DNA sequence: GGCCACTATGACAACGTTGTCCCCCAGCGG
DNA sequence: CCGCTGGGGGACAACGTTGTCATAGTGGCC
């Protein structure tokens, strides 16, 4: 194995101009159009000519400029844009992976970015993607205003909202059954004898957090254990605030004996806070996560599949790209309670 | 809050042609060049003119076409390409996040794709990114041949290899101290009295797997416990093969009392296989992972920071983009053993 | 031998933007 | 009143590619 040094810029030389079809054409002694034909596998090029062209391409290291191509062709840049909350969050990286998979099958590249729950950033990313003329847009909304997308949608860019609905446009949306999930969580805990069930959720202006709170409340009402303000703690949570909340819940006149966690991050914060304490409340977490089954006790969760979400949204998007122009759809994916132990502790 | 329906394609109408600078110019009663000036915040436009232009832009929902811009300007498409093994793997999604962060600070978008350890796919992705004229390329190599990148590097596209070195080109590379890590793992286990330490690693043609094996071997030699073929199991591992290997290790004439796991996936497979069994060998895993500290016993790991890796690589890439043309560098990031319990079990 | 059909190839414009260069006009000094 | 200056704005070409249309050559057929 010889080690090639690319003897070019790396060694501090001037940048070499990139070869264009023109250069290839000159070298191969044909017209630029013929090069184009070869590059695009168009018929009607004599095999021997094609061979000369290919040799020239190889020699020059030619690679066609997709900016130029996209400009000329007008339609389809072969990319789709994905705006999510945080690629670093395993849930969203699962979504990303699924989207990438579907996109690959359909010959598209994914461009993604994290909004970090900042509506301004979400908008910035989405519009940036539009400037790049993505063929479609998948968005996990951070904000409630999406009218900024109207011109893009009018111009034919399909948009699918993911995990949360758009604020003020009508568009395809894929959600999970947040309400059903927390109703089930509460029901499950109540069935195991718990009457004092707390809910720790994310900031209430986040759609899913709010929905899950609603489900929690409905569960409390349906099971007859009643809804008690003091058992609810919403808001952006970090390790510290979760620990503080747990302390508070323990010292109530009637302490909480069970907890529903509003998302995977909160579940983990809770687990970490509880680590080592002998007495631990029953726990059901929203979102499944790796290793939940290996903890002791294993963590009961409301599971919903990141891949399924990504796949459903991509499928919807590609259906639009294929010309489906039926009215906007709202898909709600089911969740399921996975009993593992942590929620089956008796009160 | 009113609900806007984008009354366009969604409702099944014809696609509206997207507004161009020409349309804006016509509407604003100026030349296209003036529109360009406004859009690019160039000086020399009368405030009142600029206002008219901005109004027209708003009215038409104009968004400049970056394909055209990039084509015309020739340099910098404002994107960087990231080829990794699997965005769905938490380790790589951490890398992605870090890269995205740095890119954002430098005004770049990240385009990423997963190679799934397939060299062909890696190449395909990298070249696709080159066709899109990314400003730079970050690659977690799947294969050993990277001479296909030479024309690109010559043309001035900086390339940084991540986590593994390139096969046959000289280029910037950021690695972690794989050898040092497994040496330390073995040393740690030996210090706790283990003499029969097994190693479960990934396929040996993967650079990191091979390095870690080397470290393991060196650790065995240095500690004087000796290297025994029968204690090593390389190869692509899944849940089943790991379980089988563990059974084999248990039934040796001198069974293994400790295990070093070659990466986070293997560690998890091991944990899952061991779940429930009373007697468990000591374990040190390569790669830290979320909740490792909450398992029982908590899992001792060789930790290295995905963000640090992503950041180091991006920093290197942007240094190149800023004109640094010193000889290619190889950065090796330190790892550290995080003792948590699973590796401190006495033999 | 003349005409046609067909294959292989090329000339040219156009995609939407920006860099270069030029022009117009108001204001000002001589 | 003239020439000069500088701010504001426009005409035009060019980026690299592809779609449209034209054309040269070749062989077959009456």
TrEMBL record, chains A, B:
<feature type="domain" description="HTH lacI-type">
    <location>
        <begin position="19"/>
        <end position="73"/>
    </location>
</feature>
<dbReference type="Pfam" id="PF00356">
    <property type="entry name" value="LacI"/>
</dbReference>
<dbReference type="InterPro" id="IPR028082">
    <property type="entry name" value="Peripla_BP_I"/>
</dbReference>
<keyword id="KW-0238">DNA-binding</keyword>
<dbReference type="InterPro" id="IPR046335">
    <property type="entry name" value="LacI/GalR-like_sensor"/>
</dbReference>
<dbReference type="Pfam" id="PF13377">
    <property type="entry name" value="Peripla_BP_3"/>
</dbReference>
<dbReference type="GO" id="GO:0003700">
    <property type="term" value="F:DNA-binding transcription factor activity"/>
</dbReference>
<keyword id="KW-0805">Transcription regulation</keyword>
<protein>
    <submittedName>
        <fullName>LacI family transcriptional regulator</fullName>
    </submittedName>
</protein>
<dbReference type="InterPro" id="IPR010982">
    <property type="entry name" value="Lambda_DNA-bd_dom_sf"/>
</dbReference>
<dbReference type="InterPro" id="IPR000843">
    <property type="entry name" value="HTH_LacI"/>
</dbReference>
<keyword id="KW-0804">Transcription</keyword>
<dbReference type="GO" id="GO:0000976">
    <property type="term" value="F:transcription cis-regulatory region binding"/>
</dbReference>
């Amino acid at each position: 194995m010889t080690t090639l040094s690319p003897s070019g810029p790396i060694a501090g030389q001037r940048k070499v101009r990139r070869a264009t079809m023109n250069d290839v054409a000159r070298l191969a002694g044909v017209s630029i159009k013929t090069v184009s034909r070869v590059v695009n596998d168009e018929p009607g090029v004599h095999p021997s000519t094609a061979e000369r062209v290919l040799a020239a391409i190889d020699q020059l290291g030619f690679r066609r400029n997709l900016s130029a191509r996209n400009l000329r062709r007008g339609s389809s840049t072969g990319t789709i844009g994905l705006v999510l909350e945080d690629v670093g969050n395993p849930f969203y990286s699962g979504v990303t992976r699924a989207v990438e998979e579907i996109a690959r099958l359909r010959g598209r590249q994914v461009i993604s970015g994290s909004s970090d729950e900042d509506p301004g950033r979400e908008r910035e990313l989405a519009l940036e993607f539009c400037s790049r003329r993505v063929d479609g847009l998948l968005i996990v909304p951070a904000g409630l205003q999406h009218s900024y997308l109207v011109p893009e949608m009018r111009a034919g860019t399909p948009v699918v909202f993911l995990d949360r609905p758009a604020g003020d446009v009508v568009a395809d949306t894929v959600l999970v059954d947040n309400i059903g999930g927390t109703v089930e969580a509460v029901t499950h805990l109540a069935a195991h004898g718990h009457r004092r069930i707390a809910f720790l959720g994310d900031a209430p202006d986040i759609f899913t957090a709010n929905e899950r709170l609603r489900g929690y409340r409905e569960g409390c009402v349906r099971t007859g254990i009643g809804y008690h303000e003091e058992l609810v703690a919403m808001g952006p949570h970090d390790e510290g605030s979760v620990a503080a909340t747990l302390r508070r819940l323990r010292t109530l006149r009637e302490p909480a004996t069970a907890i529903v966690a509003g998302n995977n991050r909160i579940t983990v914060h809770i687990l970490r806070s509880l680590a080592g304490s002998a007495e631990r409340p029953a726990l059901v977490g929203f979102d499944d996560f790796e290793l939940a089954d290996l903890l002791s006790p294993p963590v009961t969760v409301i599971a919903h599949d990141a891949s399924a979400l990504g796949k459903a949204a991509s499928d919807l998007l590609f259906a639009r790209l294929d010309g489906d122009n039926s009215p906007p759809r709202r898909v709600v994916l089911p969740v399921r309670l996975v009993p593992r132990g942590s929620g089956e502790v008796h009160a």
